[in-house]
Automatic annotation (TrEMBL):
Residues 39-188 form the HhH-GPD domain. DNA repair enzyme that has both DNA N-glycosylase activity and AP-lyase activity. The DNA N-glycosylase activity releases various damaged pyrimidines from DNA by cleaving the N-glycosidic bond, leaving an AP (apurinic/apyrimidinic) site. The AP-lyase activity cleaves the phosphodiester bond 3' to the AP site by a beta-elimination, leaving a 3'-terminal unsaturated sugar and a product with a terminal 5'-phosphate. Pfam families: EndIII_4Fe-2S, HHH, HhH-GPD. One of its GO terms (molecular function) is 4 iron, 4 sulfur cluster binding. The gene is nth. This is Endonuclease III. Belongs to the Nth/MutY family. It catalyses: 2'-deoxyribonucleotide-(2'-deoxyribose 5'-phosphate)-2'-deoxyribonucleotide-DNA = a 3'-end 2'-deoxyribonucleotide-(2,3-dehydro-2,3-deoxyribose 5'-phosphate)-DNA + a 5'-end 5'-phospho-2'-deoxyribonucleoside-DNA + H(+).
Amino acid sequence: MQKRERFRRFIEYFTQHYPDPKTELNFGNPFELLVAVILSAQCTDKRINQISPALFARFPEPESLAAASVDEVFSYIRSVSYPNNKAKHLVGMANILLSKFGGEIPATVDELQTLPGVGRKTAHVILSVVYNEPTMAVDTHVFRVSHRIGLAPLTATTPLAVEKALMAHIPKQYVPKAHHWLILHGRYVCLARSPKCEICALREFCKYYEKLLVVSQ
DNA sequence: ATCCCGAGGG
DNA sequence: CCCTCTGGAT
């Protein structure tokens, strides 16, 4: 199947099944989203949503988080992955947010990436969700699923390469949705270890299902 | 043993 | 490029 046809089928299928896809992280404002996305690295959204209510109640804005001790922040996030690193990142992030950006969430990739704990993926999530920009954040799900269903070539071995492949072929108006479609599909159908190919509507043009693809990431 | 909406440092 | 961080679910 041609590349163009794969993208067309992909968009057609998910437009019907997930008309309005969005993040499953709970948040009430851009600051809370930034905190939640930093915490979500190598951790399930479900777990973040379990600890975020108490965290947001104690640190509702950059000021309280910047003034907090790393130990106290740690006590709120001890059940997520890499709590030591993330506690330092959160306090550092809040301080930079206040000193460099007046407490506002930056709106460019370069500025966002100056914040501790914020890499390209997190920056693109913020740009997409907060500022409605057509950016493609490539996480573990996007990376894996894109390869399996042939939206990215196997030669795209880095998240940036996958990002470029997707951006080159997905119409701008579908980019934010496609980001969430790939995540939802990866989370609930196209699982890393034992993908549910028997219920997958995309298997007819899936390289993984054809066993032409063995790599994950 | 492997994976989860990665990032920082060497 | 590599390595480390490191809790909980499957």
